[in-house]
């Protein structure tokens, strides 16, 4: 996909003119796990290190360091399908750090995790020096939250939400709550969505409905609180 306009520079390098150099410096932890199902954990880390131009000896050394740093050593020879949700996110973080990335992009690194595991994940990110001296936080949308009388009827609620805002995605689910990410582009449909949800509250087992955005103050306070845990 070609850019329609503008330029992106990473450490002073044009991402188009110096694509290979930029890729070697970037690490991405996507929102959804992306693994090779037939490779073990250590093989995947080695593979990603080699992709960034490292030698086989550097890749093996990098894998040992990352496995130990992220608490994955005991699972080194396991396949990703054998890991728990928390362990899978640790592996995804390890892959983003493989090859010594100097610029790390974290896209919802704790998505799908319970509160305790999420806290552990952020501690690991800090301990792994994954947060550098400059941090950028991107917010493009809204958060739609529900509390429910019983276990959330995710499929039914999602059906209603996406019928009005097609790009909506599930952000988090707990025993009695469910939340979604809503893109700003769908804001014109919010009034109709809220009316439909209010009308179907009983049918969907919804107790309360809330919508909000993450302010810059919240982002700042969150970051400061994380640093204070170091």
Protein described:
InterPro entries: ABC_transporter-like_ATP-bd, ABCA, P-loop_NTPase. It is a single chain. This protein has 230 residues and is an alpha+beta fold. The protein has two domains: 11-127, Rossmann fold (3-Layer(aba) Sandwich); 142-213, PDO, CxxC motif (Alpha-Beta Plaits, 2-Layer Sandwich), CATH 3.30.70. It has helices at residues 19-25, 41-51, 56-69, 85-97, 115-127, 154-164, 190-199, 201-204, 216-228; strands spanning 9-10, 13-14, 26-29, 103-106, 142-148, 169-174, 177-182, 206-212. The strands form three sheets. Strands 6-7-5-8 form a four-stranded antiparallel beta sheet. Strands 1-2 form a two-stranded antiparallel sheet. Strands 3-4 form a two-stranded parallel sheet. Helix 2 packs across helix 3 and helix 4 (85-97) packs parallel to helix 5. The chain starts with 8 loop residues before the first strand and ends with a helix. The mean pLDDT is 83.
**Secondary-structure arrangement, i.e. CATH architecture of the largest domain:** 3-Layer(aba) Sandwich
Shape: globular
Helix content: 40-55%
| Helix run count | 9
Class from secondary-structure proportions: alpha+beta
What is the total number of structural domains?
A: 2
Largest sheet: 4 strands, antiparallel
**CATH uppermost class of the largest domain:** Alpha Beta
